């Protein structure tokens, strides 16, 4: 069963079948018990009616006994003799009448038939025993033996003679009723299961139709590689609708990622072309005229190319989801160490407040963020660069500030995009590739923090305090 519709229809059919079988069995048991109780009640009423006649002094030969095979009656004396019997009744619960079908001598009482005064409360003349003995048994009426629900009631006539009235109620109607209900269930059950399977199939098919539309559109997108396409969103606000919306969100994120990757490759190719072309030109000139080789210029281009390759490699690792190392970094100590090594800066770096506190992450990547922020400040400062670490609640804020003209508010987010360099925004740009701030923000985000321009020339890195 490779189809969801088939599995759903089969599962629903099996569940309904089990439920119907269980319910049908319970109904049959309850119905049989109810009919059994009704037969016992009918037999008891008949027995008490005859016992009432005996208690009021009606002679045994004149008792009004019911006729027919549905309610056989037999009256026996205390000694086991048959005193009265219904028409065509030959035996009731093992007690048989004479050979001619008239009252006569029975085979005698067994231990189960002795209902003398020693086994229960004594009865006075004209009294009926309140207790009734109900059991399933058989009776022979007109030569036909069948099952009955039998009731035995004891009574004494007006002279004090004790008699036992045995009356039966046929169980055949009960069995016929139960059989009819069972047959109806056996006929209706398969039909009902067919209806359940069909309805489940149709409902599941209708419910899964949007899923098929989503699948078809995804297959078309895969075949065409056109990530601008979107799957159809059904109007219903159910799980399938949420699936379609989530799929479209995933496609949008994938389209953005692919477009970003394409732009990254194009920008990287453009940035790499310039130093490579310069190096090639210098080498070709050196081959033709060795005396004209610009060694310092070649070194500068090589260093620039090396830095650009390192930046591209770091960005590739960040885009691949590389997680920072789970170590503790004392931010203030890192600032002191990194700034002490910057001996060739154009503008000296002044150290402000350095609040103590540790953050979790990679020291190398965080030092790279600090270095990129200081390099950016060095390019655009007039005469002062300042770095400080302050604690605000459960966060540490590393701030790098310069006294340059600052970044226009409209450009404060754009400068964190890759390969973006403002044309005339901040003077003395040494021709960087425009990756420093983009790398700094990516590292900040992967450390659970943020990087933003708070004012025109203040860059703030915020990181959660470790622990």
What is the 3D form?
Answer: rod-shaped
Tell how many strands the DSSP assignment holds: 14
CA-CA gap between termini? 53 Å
Percentage of residues in strands: 15-25%
Return Rg in Å.
52 Å
What is the helical fraction, as a range of percent?
40-55%
* Whole-number mean pLDDT: 84
For the biggest β-sheet, the strand order reads 2-1-7-6-5-3-4
What's the tally of helices?
Answer: 7
Major sheet: size, sense and barrel closure?
7 strands, antiparallel
Helices, strands, pairings?
Blueprint: H1 4-55, E1 73-77, E2 82-85, E3 89-92, E4 95-96, E5 133-141, E6 144-156, E7 162-170, H2 172-224, H3 239-288, H4 295-319, E8 327-330, H5 331-340, E9 349-354, E10 358-361, H6 363-380, E11 385-392, E12 395-402, H7 436-446, E13 450-455, E14 458-464
Parallel strand pairs: 9-11
Antiparallel strand pairs: 1-2, 1-7, 3-4, 3-5, 5-6, 6-7, 8-10, 11-12, 12-14, 13-14
Helix pairs in contact: 1-2, 3-4, 4-7, 6-7
Task: Please tell me about this protein's structure.
The protein has 467 residues and is an alpha+beta fold. Helix content is 47%, strand content 19%. A 7-stranded antiparallel sheet has the order 2-1-7-6-5-3-4. Strands 9-11-12-14-13 form a 5-stranded mixed sheet. β5 (133-141) and β6 form a beta hairpin. The chain is rod-shaped and about 155 Å long.
């Amino acid at each position: 069963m490779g189809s969801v519709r088939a599995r759903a229809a089969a599962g629903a059919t099996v569940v309904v079948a089990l439920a119907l079988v269980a319910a049908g069995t319970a109904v049959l048991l309850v119905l049989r018990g109810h009919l059994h109780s009704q037969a016992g009640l009918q037999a008891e009423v008949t027995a008490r009616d005859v016992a009432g006649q005996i208690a009021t002094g009606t002679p045994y030969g004149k008792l009004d006994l019911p006729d027919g095979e549905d309610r056989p009656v037999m009256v026996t004396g205390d000694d086991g003799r048959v005193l009265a019997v219904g028409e065509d009744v030959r035996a009731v619960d093992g007690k048989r009448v004479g050979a001619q079908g008239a009252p006569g001598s029975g085979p005698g009482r067994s231990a189960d038939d002795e209902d003398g005064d020693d086994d229960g409360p004594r009865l006075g003349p004209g009294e009926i025993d309140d207790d009734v003995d109900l059991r399933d048994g058989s009776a022979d009426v007109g030569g036909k033996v069948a099952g009955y629900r039998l009731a035995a009631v004891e009574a004494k006539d007006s002279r004090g003679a004790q008699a036992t009235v045995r009356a039966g109620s046929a169980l055949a109607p009960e069995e016929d009723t139960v059989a009819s209900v069972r047959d109806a269930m056996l006929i209706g059950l398969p039909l009902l299961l067919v209806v359940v399977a069909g309805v489940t199939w149709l409902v599941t098919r209708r419910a899964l139709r949007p899923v098929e539309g989503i699948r078809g559109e995804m297959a078309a997108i895969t075949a065409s590689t056109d990530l601008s396409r979107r799957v159809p969103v059904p109007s219903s606000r159910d799980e399938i609708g949420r699936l379609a919306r989530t799929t479209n969100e995933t496609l949008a994120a994938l389209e953005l990622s692919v477009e970003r990757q394409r732009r990254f490759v194009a920008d990287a190719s453009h940035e790499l072309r310039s130093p490579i072309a310069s190096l090639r030109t210098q080498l070709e000139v050196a081959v033709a005229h060795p005396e004209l080789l610009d060694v310092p210029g070649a070194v500068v281009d090589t260093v620039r190319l090396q830095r650009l390759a390192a930046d591209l490699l770091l960005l590739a690792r960040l885009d691949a989801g590389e997680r920072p190392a789970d170590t503790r970094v004392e931010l203030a100590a890192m600032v002191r160490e990194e700034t002490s090594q910057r001996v060739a800066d154009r503008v000296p770096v002044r150290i402000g407040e350095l609040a103590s506190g540790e953050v979790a992450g990679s020291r190398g990547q965080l030092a790279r963020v600090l270095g990129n922020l200081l390099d950016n400040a060095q390019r655009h400062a007039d005469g002062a660069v300042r770095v400080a670490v302050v604690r605000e609640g459960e966060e540490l804020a590393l701030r790098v500030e310069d006294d340059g003209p600052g970044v226009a508010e409209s450009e404060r987010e754009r400068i964190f995009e890759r390969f973006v360099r403002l044309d005339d925004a901040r003077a003395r740009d040494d021709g960087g590739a425009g990756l420093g701030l983009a790398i700094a923000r990516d590292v900040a985000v992967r450390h659970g923090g943020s990087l933003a321009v708070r004012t025109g020339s203040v860059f703030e890195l915020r990181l959660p305090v470790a622990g």
